[in-house]
Amino acid sequence: MKATLAILTIGVVPVSEILPLLTEHISEQQITHYSLLGTLSREEVMEDYAPERGEARLPVLLSDGKLGHVSLPKIERGLQSVIEVLDNQDYEVILLMSTAPITGLVARNAILLEPMRIIPPLVGSIVDSHQVGVIVPMDELLENQSKKWQGLSNAPLLAVANPFWDSENRLIDAGRDLLDRGADVLMLDCLGFHQHHRDLLQKNLDVPVLLSNVLVARLASELLV
């Protein structure tokens, strides 16, 4: 059976909930998940990916269930090395499951899908002139958001709620805060958010909710037909 899709993640990212979106067209046996750091201990991660002085830092969920701050340039080099290996293994699509500000990745044979490059213009085309409220998982990611969403007609409103350790009420409160500030569409911009989070917000707040992982998974599924 031909290998078709490789899902590439940086840290610990649950991919089980997006599999039904992908297996509409291919079997689960044709999907492989590779994690750059997810199977390593914290000590192993820091040995190879600890940030040097002056390097941009990236918060990543590690195998111990806690955040670690790693070097963004080292992560980009590590991902490119993995992509080069995958690119020679007959995968049709390599799906990078990360909303981190990763740049410079290249695949020569497979189609490389990068959420950071794809999702902002896609969301912009969907929401048009509506006011978007973006929920991110941690305060450290707020700084990057204005640059990430600069293509939107209106600058996004931002709030923080974490899908891994915050309560459902915390997520609802974050969404309600965005609506009170003028948002009329919500965007869950973390791959840890899943469809039950979207359903929770839509049920309690009666507002359209977009999921970054669903958007990119559906695009990947179309390429696999």
How would you describe this protein?
The strands form 3 sheets. A 4-stranded parallel sheet has the order 2-1-5-6, sandwiched between helices. A 4-stranded parallel sheet has the order 8-7-9-10. The radius of gyration is 17 Å and the shape is globular. Helices cover 37% and strands 19% of the residues. The protein contains 8 helices and 10 strands. The chain is an alpha/beta fold and 225 residues long. InterPro entries: Uncharacterised_AroM. This is AroM family protein. It comes from Leclercia barmai.
In short:
The chain is an alpha/beta fold and 225 residues long. The chain is 37% helix and 19% strand.
What order do the helices and strands come in, and which of them pair?
Layout lengths: L4 E5 L9 H4 L8 E5 L6 H8 L7 E5 L5 E5 H15 L6 E4 L14 E3 L1 H13 L4 E5 L5 H7 L8 E4 L7 H13 L4 E4 L6 H11 L3 E3 H12 L2
Parallel strand pairs: 1-2, 1-5, 5-6, 7-8, 7-9, 9-10
Antiparallel strand pairs: 3-4
Strand content: 15-25%
Largest sheet: 4 strands, parallel
Q: What general outline do the C-alpha atoms trace?
A: globular
- For the CA atoms, what is the radius of gyration? 17 Å
Spatial sequence of strands, sheet with the most strands: 2-1-5-6
* Average pLDDT number: 89
Kindly state the number of beta strands: 10
> What share of residues is helical?
25-40%
Spatial separation of the terminal alpha carbons? 15 Å
Number of helices in the DSSP assignment: 8
Order of helices and strands: EHEHEEHEEHEHEHEHEH
Q: Could you state the oligomeric state of the chains shown?
A: single chain
